[in-house]
């Protein structure tokens, strides 16, 4: 498949300023919400994993696909505007519990912690998430697919994230090398994907210097992520006609930082849409999990 993808540009201003973006403020106080600039590159070849003889895994390319039928009623109505309080959303809670067990079984993990989830839909408006009881909650609306090729966490950002969620004894065990840690994204479409499919880069084709750390300024915290700078040697993959039983696993942070090449695969969505994308939108649910392994 040939398509177009969006990448961050490396600018001279970054010699003086940290790359940043502002997210989630209902009433921004300034028109300047980012100093990042993006470029769209085309045509870019995306390989279909269904037609590929390559074996992909978290340890090799940084991603894999598994077949799994959810026992939950995974419909948009359960996830859109669910919010973080799950007591009134038993379907969402059941799906998160199911995903935790799936990851633990598939990866033979010691412990799996779900700390975040997102619901996305093509055609969703820009994210301007309202405050509820003075609390920022990104789960109060459908989010648009992330078209910029990125990694959810930089190496520093992932360390800060696990420090937020691990117990003191778990963090000490990680620091002593008794436990290893990853952050995994489990991505599942709610129907067959016909537009804006998930695109994942083979991490082995990405050099550390191709990643640009960006500070994402949120109402309650600052997260550090990576954007990918375009290089012609990167290799990209997707799954054609990906359905609800075709679940993507990909690493979004790894304690073991790569030396020359990236330890995690940048990902995003292809910037192409079927004519009926509003009537037949791509809807997906992604779950972000800290996974601990016994060393």
Automatic annotation (TrEMBL):
Gene Ontology MF, one: oxidoreductase activity
Family recorded in the similarity comment: Belongs to the asaB hydroxylase/desaturase family.
Record NCBIfam families: CmcJ_NvfI_EfuI (NF041278)
Protein name: Methyltransferase
């Amino acid at each position: 498949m040939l398509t177009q993808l969006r990448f961050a540009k490396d600018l001279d201003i970054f010699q003086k300023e940290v790359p940043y973006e502002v997210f989630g403020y209902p009433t921004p106080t300034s028109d300047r919400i980012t100093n990042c600039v993006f470029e769209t590159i085309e045509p870019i070849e995306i390989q279909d994993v269904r037609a590929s003889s390559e074996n992909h895994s978290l340890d090799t390319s940084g991603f894999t696909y598994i077949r799994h039928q959810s026992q939950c009623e995974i419909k948009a109505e359960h996830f859109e505007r669910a919010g973080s309080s799950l007591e009134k959303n038993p379907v969402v809670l059941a799906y998160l519990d199911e995903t935790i067990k799936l990851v633990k079984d598939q990866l033979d993990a010691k412990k799996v912690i779900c700390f975040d989830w997102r619901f996305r839909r093509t055609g969703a408006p820009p994210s301007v998430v309202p405050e509820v009881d003075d609390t920022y909650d990104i789960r109060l609306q459908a989010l648009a697919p992330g078209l910029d090729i990125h990694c959810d966490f930089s190496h520093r950002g992932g360390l800060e994230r696990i420090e937020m969620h691990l117990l003191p004894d778990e963090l000490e065990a990680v620091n002593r090398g008794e436990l290893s840690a990853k952050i995994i994204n489990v991505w599942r479409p709610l129907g067959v994907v016909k537009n804006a499919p998930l695109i994942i880069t083979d991490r082995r084709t990405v050099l550390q210097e191709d990643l640009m750390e960006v500070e994402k300024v949120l109402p309650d915290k600052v997260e550090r992520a990576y954007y990918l700078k375009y290089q012609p040697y990167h290799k990209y993959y997707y799954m054609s006609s990906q359905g609800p039983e075709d679940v993507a696993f990909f690493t979004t942070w790894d304690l073991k930082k790569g030396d020359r090449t990236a330890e995690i695969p940048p990902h995003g969505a292809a910037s192409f849409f079927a004519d009926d994308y509003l009537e037949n939108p791509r809807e997906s649910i992604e779950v972000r999990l800290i996974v601990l392994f016994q060393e």
